Amino acid sequence: MKFYHEGAKEIPIIAETEILVAGGGPAGVGAAIAAARCGAKVMLIEKCGYLGGVATAGMMSHWSGAVHCSLLKEIMKKTAQSTSLPLEYAPELTEHDFNWSIPHECQKQVLFQMMREAGVTVQVHTMAVAVIKDGNKVKGVITESKSGREAIMAKAVIDATGDGDIAAFAGAKYLLGREEDNACQPVTLMFRIGGVDYARAVFPHSFETFIDLPAGEIQALGKAHLPAPAGHVLLYRNLLPGEVTVNMTNVTGINGTDVRDLTRAEMECREQMDQIVKFLRKFVPGYEKCYLTASGEMTGIRETRHFKGVITLTPEDIVEAKVFDDWIAVKNYFNFDIHNIKGAGLDSNGAQKFFRAKGEYTIPYRACVPEKIDGLLLSGRNISGTHKAHSNYRVMGICLNIGVGVGTAAATAVQAGVELRNADIKNVQQILLANGTEL
Questions:
Q1: pTM above 0.70?
Q2: 255-270 pLDDT, tens per residue?
Q3: Residue 112 host element (H or E)
Q4: What is the dihedral of CA 173, 385, 65, 127, to 10 degrees?
Q5: Is pLDDT above 60 for 417?
Q6: N or C: which end of the chain has fewer CB within 10 A?
Q7: What is the DSSP secondary-structure string of 128-168?
Q8: Helix or strand (DSSP H, E) at 122
Q9: pLDDT tens digits, 66-110
Q10: 97-111, 169-183, 278-292: range with lowest mean pLDDT
Q11: CB of 342 within 8 A of CB of 348?
């Protein structure tokens, strides 16, 4: 590989804050709002032109995993009050209700509104491209945007980038993907279709949802007629009349931290979308006149870097519903949602319908603290956990829940003048309970 030597240059420091959150997806939204509500001076940067990450830019169908999270309930309640929704929309949130579905455009505005109300300084269209360190301590980040290369200094940085870009720049130790071979779960570009007759439509919501149709069983039809590695059928109710959110594109062998792999994923997913629409029209009742209405701005990346924290979350911790002494996120519940690394459907190590656990589990603060890097916390799917454990806590509701805990801990540590790894967790837990967390 050839190299070009870039000369040294002065980078303007455009902001100095107490807490900088990198990434405006669920984990970053939770961290920023929670830290600001604790009285900290907070700035959030995001690469897209709006907030929400996978929930909005990724056009995810619905929230799940931590429906007891008070901030998630608040987000959904405010979203339901949007005047841009259909006039007949009157949600009543229950644990299994499809009203956890996401009206993407309305939620974008709601998240901006909540940031303003919390006093968070938001800067979108901004990517973090490097860190500023003093020894092993992160002191800020360097960004790139239409305004050029700039620096933001902070007393604490929260990495909510999903892939853990900040932590990687800082030199934190991590493992990519699956332990034995570094393979990552396949990626998906979500999209919406219109023209669906809800009176006759079916909505298979998992790989293990089998529905008999006139032409055959729906998952078997998908495997037989969709282009590999696509082949499963996942269709979700939407809050817009006649629209359905589709989770059926599938590309394997993608490293979500490599721009060339990401480019290939985008192109292959879009090629699959046309074939999926044709498949639905031909085989699935109620979808005979369906058509593409919108697609995500970003491909959904399920798995990349798992960072080495003070402790590592395991599948046994989840199945045993472990309550850690240093919990910062509680009442998390999901399945081992490991998409087939080699093709369509569920991986042999995954478990959806037949997932069994003793109850809801907690996320320990120590899994959010990099083993050897100070001034930095992990938030979301980049925390310290195994490949299998990650398949459970990677979902948006749990990432939001983690963000709330991490943001609260960062604020208390900064205010007390201690290193992030030395945050008073008992105090953090008291604040979380006072702010709506339910044990």
A1: yes
A2: 999 999 999 999 999 9
A3: helix 104-118
A4: 10
A5: yes
A6: N
A7: EEEEEEETTEEEEEEEEETTEEEEEEEEEEEE-SSS-HHHH
A8: strand 121-123
A9: 888 999 999 998 998 888 888 766 556 555 554 588 999 999 999
A10: 97-111
A11: no
| β-bridge partners, 351 | 336
Residue 392: which H helix or E strand, with range?
helix 387-393
CA distances from 202 to 218, 231, 349 (A): 10, 17, 27
Mean pLDDT of 204-224: 96
Matching residue, tokens 């219109």: 194
Length of the chain: 439
Helix axis angle for 396-416 and 70-80, nearest 10°, is 120
C-alpha angle with apex 273: 271 to 276, nearest 5 degrees?
Answer: 120
Quick one: the chain helix, strand, coil %, rounded to 5?
30, 25, 45
Contact between residue 373 and residue 138 where contact means Cβ atoms under 8 Å apart: yes
pLDDT, tens digit (0-9, with 9 covering 90-100), for 401-411:
999 999 999 99
Tokens representing residue 82 in the block: 């949007």
**Side chain identity at 393, as an amino acid letter?**
Y
**What pLDDT is stored for residue 91 in this prediction?**
58
Question: pLDDT at position 90, please?
Answer: 56
Task: Give the residue from 396, 179, 402 showing the smallest Cα distance to 300.
Answer: 396
Q: Kindly report the three-state secondary structure assignment for every residue of 264-280.
A: HHHHHHHHHHHHHHHHH
Q: Helices H, strands E: what count in the chain? A: 10, 17
At 93 the pLDDT is 55
Instruction: Inform me whether the pLDDT recorded for 25 exceeds 60.
Output: yes
Residues 6+ away with beta carbon under 8 Å from 345: 207, 219, 223, 231, 232, 339
Q: Which two tokens stand for residue 96?
A: 């299994």
Reported confidence tier of residue 299, pLDDT bands at 50, 70, 90: very high
**For the chain, first and last CA: distance in Å?**
54
Residue 347 CA from chain centroid, whole number = 20
| Helices within 38-97 (DSSP H only) | 70-80
Rounded Cα gap, residues 242 and 258, in angstroms = 37
CB 399 within 8 A of CB 25: yes
Give the span between the Cα atoms of 93 and 95, in whole angstroms. 7
CB distance 265 to 186 below 8 Å: no
Separation between Cα atoms, residue 263 and residue 169, nearest integer Å: 22
Burial of 276 (0-12, 13-18, 19+ CB in 10 A): buried
Counting Cα atoms < 13 Å in the Cβ hemisphere of 49 gives 3
Name beta bridge partners: 148.
145
CA atoms of 39 and 423, how far apart (whole Å): 16
